Amino acid sequence: MGYRGFCLYLVLLALSLEPQNLKSEELTCNPTDLRALAGFSNCLESAIAGWNSTVSPDCCTWSGIICDNSTFSGRRVVGLELGSKRLTGKICESLAGLNQLRVLNLSHNFLWGSLPAELFSLQNIEIIDLSNNDFLGSISNKGMCTISTRIQVLNFSNNHFSGQVPKDLANCTFLNHLSFDGNSLSGSLPETLFQLKNLSELNLQGNRISGPLSNGIVNLSNLVKLDISSNLFSGVLPDIFGSLARLEHFSAMSNSFTGLLPNSLVNSPSLQMLNLNNNSLSGSINLNCSAMKNLVSLGLGSNLFLGPIPDGLSFCRGLKALNLARNNLGGELPNNFKNLKSLTQLSLSNTSLSNILSALRILQNCRNLSMLGLTRNFHDEQIPNDVSLEFKNLNSLILANCQLRGPIPQWLSRCHKLQFLDLSWNHLGGNIPSWFGKFESLFYLDLSNNSFKGELPKSLTELQCLISGKMTIEEPVSSFQLYAARQGGPSLSYRQISGLRPTLDLSYNILQGPIWPSFGNLKRLHVLNLKENNLSGPIPNNLSGMTYLEKLDLSHNKLSGEIPRALVNLSFLSTFDVSYNQLCGEIPEGSQFDTFPDTSFEGNNGLCSAEYCTCQSEQTRHSPGEKKMTTIGLPFGIGAATGFVLTVICCFMSGLSLP
Ligand SMILES: *[C@@H]1O[C@H](CO)[C@@H](O)[C@H](O)[C@H]1NC(C)=O
Ligand SMILES: *[C@@H]1O[C@H](CO)[C@@H](O)[C@H](O)[C@H]1NC(C)=O
Ligand SMILES: *[C@@H]1O[C@H](CO)[C@@H](O)[C@H](O)[C@H]1NC(C)=O
Ligand SMILES: *[C@@H]1O[C@H](CO)[C@@H](O)[C@H](O)[C@H]1NC(C)=O
Ligand SMILES: *[C@@H]1O[C@H](CO)[C@@H](O)[C@H](O)[C@H]1NC(C)=O
Ligand SMILES: *[C@@H]1O[C@H](CO)[C@@H](O)[C@H](O)[C@H]1NC(C)=O
Ligand SMILES: *[C@@H]1O[C@H](CO)[C@@H](O)[C@H](O)[C@H]1NC(C)=O
Ligand SMILES: *[C@@H]1O[C@H](CO)[C@@H](O)[C@H](O)[C@H]1NC(C)=O
Ligand SMILES: *[C@@H]1O[C@H](CO)[C@@H](O)[C@H](O)[C@H]1NC(C)=O
Ligand SMILES: *[C@@H]1O[C@H](CO)[C@@H](O)[C@H](O)[C@H]1NC(C)=O
Ligand SMILES: *[C@@H]1O[C@H](CO)[C@@H](O)[C@H](O)[C@H]1NC(C)=O
Ligand SMILES: *[C@@H]1O[C@H](CO)[C@@H](O)[C@H](O)[C@H]1NC(C)=O
């Protein structure tokens, strides 16, 4: 029986139930409710798993249905909990028949279409969760709360609703949680919203709401969480936070707010999380830490604040995450920052800070520090070589684009937890120390655009994490952003470490000698960039062992010999560049190699794509420091197809993040 047949059956069943006696009605669900459910099910395109009247004619036993215990005319349906049931299709007005319904949860499905007005004729409804579907159209002017006066939770997050934030919410006096985030709402906030005195959580982030945040918000004195980030709000922040005595979480990130930090905001005793990143706020950072006793996370990055970094911030002793990046602060790090013992995430990138030695000596006292962003500061200073420096818990260090001079310091070798290190775009020199290979968790290393010389340390091919892929990643809090200097321009920022592809970038240095065959051990590496060095010798066959490799750039070196055919086995390779080397022989064909442009191979006089061409020079050469091997690649075909299938499966299992 198809679902439509099933629905018809439900209707017939409903009709047949009505004349039955009280005893059986006591046990089963109310016939009106059964009919409404049949109508609801009929509008859907998918059957609902666990709704089967053959198995049980009593709808109260069906999955996701909650009934009360009334005996008068059968048990009434009071809850419809159908989250994550893979439902598709529309919801229709028959839902209105469930007139005792208190909880409607249809979240995480694939429902679409506009909302039926009848949704708001449910007199007893308290909780409506339609989040994470594909609903669209306007939510406004459906007279919500005229009949449905008892609504406490409205969650419409992550749909495609458009138009304005509804004006007719004023009668929703019980409303506690209101979430419209992740839609396409526009216009300014209606003043009626500010009559919802019982509201404790208001989520409006990720829409296109414009205009100021009006003083009216002063009336929402029960607010605990207010998130209006990623909208088009402008104007100054209202100075009303003294009245929001329960506010713990305020996020207004990525809007166009201007002006100073309001006095009541920088004196709020309740705030735990304040995120104002990416606005145009100005003036000084004048937080009153004597008042802000609960502050844990502070994001003021990417604004127009002027310095210096206030010493006063060091009295916010509970602070765990602090982002002041991209402001015009200047000066040195205040000495009292050594008292921020709880600090785990600190970003001061691009704040015109000077004196890196002093900054590091202060920050090593923050023993729990795990993420430190200092990119674009300290121009032209020497990288400190102070052996006593110690950062035991550091897992991410971003110190790029500072024009730092000197060799890689020894103290770095004791940062055993390092996962992410970016020292690119500096003037660092000397050899890359072999102890890099001992960082068991390192999966992202960017040393590009420096003056490193000598050979590639062989130990890099022993990086555990790039071999096994096993690691746990601590993500930055939402108010914290890591700015990596490069990868698609100097302003790219990463909010998720797990979104970073495992990378070794040593490009733009003066490294020489061979590419070690053991690089092939780095199965979990996604990006290998050795562009613009003086590397010589052959491209090892073994590189085909880097099964996850997506990008391989060996251009502008002095590599010779043939391109190993085995590289055809790299099924995820989407960028490949060996231009401007001294390669010869046939360019491999098949698989990904059919997609690479000619420019990937140019600047090599001996490369050709004809079948008969071979390297005219010697057929064998010495592989660096190891046994002799031929440059002619392994015959293509051995296990290529199975290799492809396996890697695809592994990749889907691990998703985008590292397992
Ligand atoms: C209901 O359950 C019966 C018995 O298990 C089964 O034969 C029938 O196909 C089911 N109907 C639907 C619509 O799933
Ligand atoms: C109905 O009665 C059962 C058993 O007495 C009880 O566990 C359940 O919570 C009641 N349900 C409602 C909705 O009151
Ligand atoms: C709705 O159901 C989902 C699970 O699918 C759950 O995460 C969510 O908390 C529920 N909503 C409410 C308001 O209880
Ligand atoms: C929708 O919001 C409510 C109130 O904040 C919350 O309880 C519920 O879990 C949310 N639903 C989902 C699917 O997260
Ligand atoms: C609010 O309720 C009153 C009284 O029930 C009604 O007259 C009014 O139209 C309602 N307002 C809205 C916006 O629904
Ligand atoms: C306000 O919310 C509280 C629970 O947070 C509830 O007990 C109270 O009844 C609500 N008041 C109104 C007027 O809705
Ligand atoms: C705020 O509350 C006061 C007093 O209850 C009321 O007079 C005023 O209209 C409210 N303001 C807004 C914007 O709702
Ligand atoms: C900063 O905000 C603007 C809008 O004001 C937005 O377009 C941009 O994507 C935001 N940048 C970041 C890094 O979030
Ligand atoms: C800072 O907060 C303390 C404690 O609330 C208060 O006594 C003091 O006046 C505030 N200072 C300023 C400058 O607002
Ligand atoms: C550095 O910060 C200034 C503002 O202080 C900004 O204009 C500039 O774009 C930032 N540069 C980078 C690379 O982030
Ligand atoms: C440092 O981190 C440890 C482990 O997470 C925690 O137990 C300790 O309380 C933290 N120290 C401070 C001062 O926050
Ligand atoms: C190298 O870094 C300098 C700044 O130190 C920058 O101006 C230059 O564009 C960078 N070169 C490359 C190729 O990234």
TrEMBL record:
Q: Which SUPFAM superfamilies match?
A: L domain-like, RNI-like
> Per the annotation, which location comes first and is thus the protein's main one?
membrane
InterPro entries the record matches: Leu-rich_rpt, Leu-rich_rpt_typical-subtyp, LRR_dom_sf, LRR_N_plant-typ, Plant_RL_S/T_kinase
Query: What subcellular compartments does it reside in?
Result: Cell membrane; Membrane
Q: What's in the keyword line of the UniProt record?
A: ATP-binding, Cell membrane, Glycoprotein, Leucine-rich repeat, Membrane, Nucleotide-binding, Receptor, Repeat, Signal, Transmembrane, Transmembrane helix
Judging by the UniProt lineage, the source's domain of life is: Eukaryota
Q: Which GO terms describe its cellular component?
A: plasma membrane
Q: How does it sit in the membrane?
A: Single-pass type I membrane protein
* Membrane-spanning residues: 632-656
Q: Which GO terms describe its molecular function?
A: ATP binding
Instruction: Cite the Leucine-rich repeat-containing N-terminal plant-type domain residue spans from the record.
Output: 31-68
**Which residues are the signal sequence here?**
1-24
Tell me its family: Belongs to the RLP family.
User: What name has this protein been given in UniProt?
Assistant: Leucine-rich repeat-containing N-terminal plant-type domain-containing protein
